Amino acid sequence: MERERIVIQDLKRQYDLRKEEDVLKVADLIVQKGYRFETREGMDFDDEIYERAKQIRERRKSQAGGSKARPVDIRDFDTDMQRAIRKQMKVRDVRRMVVLSLCFIVAFACIGFFVLYYYKADQSSQSNLDLAGKVKDTAKGQKSQTIKEEIYVDEHTGEEKTVILQVLEKYEELYNMNPNLIGWLKIADNHSEKPFIDYPVMQSEDGEHYLHYNFEEKKDANGCIFLDKDCSIVQKNDNMILYGHHMKSGNMFGNLDKYSSYDFYEKHKYIQFDTLYEEGIYEVMFVFRSRIYTEDSLAFKYYQFIDVNSGEEFDACMEEMRAMSLYDTGVNAGYGDELLTLSTCDYREKNGRFVVVAKRIQ
Could you give the count of Cα atoms lying within 13 Å of 10 in the half-sphere of its Cβ? Predict the structure, then answer.
C-alpha cells in the first residue's frame, strides 16, 4: 500500500540505518507508534529492523556483562513499551492464526474434492463392470427376438426410409435397460484379464447429453462413451466418431493417450466396436494430436470427417491424418472402407484433442 511505502521512506530519510543507534530508534518507533505493516514490502522492512535491533542489543549486553548474552526479554523495557510490544505480538498472532486457518480450510477442501472425485470414479468403474457382466457370451452374430425400427434419410434420393433390424442377443438386456445404447467398445489388454477399454456406447439427439450422464441416466462427471450425433449405425458412415472424457482416474478415454507410445500400440492394435446389430473388428491406422479449430480456420478438422463425396476427398483426408500421425502403422485404407475414430481431450494445449483412427477389417 502507498501509505506503508511513505512511512518506510520517511523513516529512512530521518535515520541512517547504517548506524546502530538509528536502527534501535526506528525499532522503538515502530513499536511505540504501533505501525502495522500488511504489504510484503512493509513486513520485510519490519522484520529486518526487528532482527537487526535484536542482534545489536544482544551484542551490547554481551560486551557489557562480559558473559554470554541472554535473549532479549520483554521485562527489559518499561511498562508503556511492554504494553505496546504485547499489543503488536497479539496482532501478529491473530494474523498468523487467520493465515493458518485459511491454509487448513483450503487443504481440507482439496482433500475432500479428491476423495469425492475418486469415490465417484470407483463407483463409475464398478457400474461399468456390472454392465459388462450383462453382455451375454453368445455365438458370433446371434440375433435376439428384439426388433428395432430405424428411420433414416437416403443420402441419394433424400427420401425418408424405414428398416427393421434385429438386436444382437448379447446386447439385448442392456438395450432393454436403455434404448439409447447403440453398441459396445472394447480393447483387449494382452497383459491383463481386464480389458484396456470396455464400455457401452450411447447416442443422443442433442449430441452432448452423455458428456454429463451415465448409462443409468444419472448425472455423472465421467459421462459415457458416445457416438457423434451426425453418425448412424444404420447408414454406416465413412467414419464413425466416438467421444469420451479424458478422466484422470483412467475411466472412459482417460488412458487413450497411451497410444502415443509405439510399444503400446503394438500390443493394442485391434479395437472391437459392435453396434446393436453387428459385430466389428478394427485395426489402428493413425494416432495423432489435434485441436478444435475456429469455423473460419482452413486446418483439417478430423471431427468433421464423417462422410465424403468421392475417392479423392477420402484420400485427401487419409493424407492429412497420415501427416499428423505420431508413427507409421503401415495400415492403409481406401474409399469404401469403414473407419472408426476415438477422440478425447488433450490438455497439452487449449481445446487440444488426442485421436486414434482405425479401419474395419472384420
Answer: 8
Q: Is 9 exposed, middle or buried (0-12, 13-18, 19+ CB in 10 A)?
A: exposed
Tell me which H or E stretch contains 91.
helix 79-133
Beta strands in the chain (DSSP E): 143-153, 160-168, 181-187, 197-202, 225-227, 239-243, 270-275, 281-291, 339-345, 352-360
DSSP 230-244: T--TTTT-SEEEEE-
pLDDT tens string 221-251? 999 999 999 999 998 899 999 999 999 889 9
Q: Which residue has the higher pLDDT, 4 or 114?
A: 4
79-133 and 20-32 helices, crossing angle to 10° = 70
DSSP annotation string for 120-135: HHHHHHHHHHHHHHTS
Element (H, E) at 50: helix 40-65
Cell numbers given for 231: 453418425
Cα distances (Å, whole numbers) of residue 53 to 22, 31, 134, 245, 269:
10, 12, 77, 60, 72
N-terminal to C-terminal alpha carbon distance within the chain:
72
Residue 163 to residue 159: CA distance in whole angstroms: 13
The whole-model pTM stands at: 0.68
- What amino acid is encoded at 193 in this protein? E
Beta carbons within 8 Å of 156's beta carbon, 6+ residues apart: none
Q: Is 120 exposed, middle or buried (0-12, 13-18, 19+ CB in 10 A)?
A: middle
Is it the case that residue 102 has pLDDT exceeding 90?
no
**Residues 1 and 38: beta-carbon distance below 8 Å:** yes
In 3D, which of 136, 140, 244 has the Cα closest to residue 196? 244
Report d(CA 66, CA 346) in Å as an integer. 70
